[in-house]
Design brief:
single chain; 363 residues; eleven-stranded mixed β-sheet; two-stranded antiparallel ribbon; elongated
């Protein structure tokens, strides 16, 4: 078996250009597979459903937790008349002069915002009662994009805001700048209007219900959770292309292994005549196939890591920070093993059935 492995590696060295070309094909397929898996996992993580015990009162047919909804303060009074207690107002809007410098703005109730959103302070401190309207705490992704830290000043809609803290949530909200509700109202010129009211689900209100004319009820975070499904079509298309590249690489590798094995048919026949089993062909082909595909796979993973580190798309104030997880690497390893098996199995089966006399005399 060592002789067969030695012959396999020697033949790869002789035909290194072909081996490098096939390794590059596998590297491209693995890069696409890993990057696609990382983006899919990131979308699922970033846009997970919110707390099931909270509802949002918003303007009908708007995406209040992102932008587009504006409610008068009288809506809050109407909620009180209906017996709803604990309604917390918020403002959600996109500020900026273009898609490139857009920032997700969130105006929060300084007394209650900690009850609604879980976060971890990475640096600085959080907003507190009594803070001025021009103070802000920003998410880690926004801080990275703006190069800001506690003590720095950022500009929102041309107005300066002092950064007092940087927070992490593990979701899309790391792209947001949280400011006092009064500061957001002044910045947008909304007076006392807000984007939505967050209320506990106590049985009085039902998601989908029309509360008043032009005002409806939704479950908090429910619309965000639909984002990954909206990307499914594109993900499926890219996945199909990736599978096609991998299959093409597997068949190309099978053809190359066949040619190399056929050139060594006499040496393999001699080894078999000396008492070696038919497995000698399997070892010869498996060493070559695994070497090429594994090298291409490792190169593809490293390329994907570099791409995911340096290519981080941002659109309308929302940026993705994909990371390669153990699950993605496990799926990649399984996928690569299937293609190696496919590329090695065909020549092994065909050549393994040939008799020694046929291998020695075949032209």
């Amino acid at each position: 078996m060592r002789v067969a492995a030695w012959l396999a590696l020697r033949d790869l060295a002789v035909h290194r250009r072909q081996a490098l070309a096939l390794g590059a094909v596998f590297a491209i397929a693995v890069t696409a597979f890993v990057a696609l898996g990382a983006y899919r996992q990131t979308l699922i993580r970033d846009y997970a459903s919110g707390r099931a015990d909270l509802l949002v009162i918003q303007e009908t047919q708007t995406f209040a937790e992102f932008y587009g909804s504006r409610l008068a303060p009288e809506i809050g009074l109407a909620l009180g008349e209906l017996g709803v207690v604990g309604a917390v107002p918020e403002i959600h809007a996109i500020v900026g002069t273009s898609l490139e410098d857009a920032v997700l703005l969130k105006g929060v109730d300084l007394e209650r915002y900690r009850e609604l959103d879980s976060f971890i302070l990475r640096s600085g401190r959080g907003l507190a009662a009594g803070d001025g309207p021009r103070r802000a705490m920003i998410g880690t992704r926004l801080a990275e994009r703006l190069g800001a830290a506690p003590g720095d000043t950022i500009r929102l809609r041309g107005r300066p805001f002092e950064v007092i803290g940087v927070f992490a949530t593990g979701s899309y909200s790391e792209n947001e700048a949280w400011v006092p509700l009064a500061g957001a109202q002044q910045l947008l010129g909304w007076g006392q209007d807000v984007s939505l009211f967050v209320v506990p689900e106590d049985g009085r209100l039902t998601p989908g219900q029309q509360l008043l004319e032009g005002v409806s009820i939704a479950r908090r975070g429910e619309l965000w959770s639909t984002f990954p499904r909206q990307w499914d079509g594109l993900m499926t298309l890219i996945g199909s292309v990736t599978q096609a590249i991998g299959m093409a690489g597997a068949f190309s590798l099978a053809a190359m292994l066949w040619r190399l094995a056929w050139r060594r048919r006499r040496q393999m026949a001699i080894l078999r005549s000396l008492g070696f089993s038919r497995a000698v062909f399997a070892v010869y082909l498996a060493v070559q196939g695994t070497s090429i595909a594994a090298a291409g796979g490792m190169g593809g993973i490293l390329t994907a890591l570099a791409i995911l580190r340096w290519v981080r798309p941002t659109l309308a104030g929302v940026s993705l920070r994909p990371q390669v997880t153990a699950a993605v690497l496990g799926q990649t390893g399984l996928w690569l093993a299937v293609w190696i098996l496919l590329s090695v199995a065909l020549p092994v089966v065909v050549l393994g059935r040939r008799r020694v006399a046929e291998l020695i005399s075949a032209e």
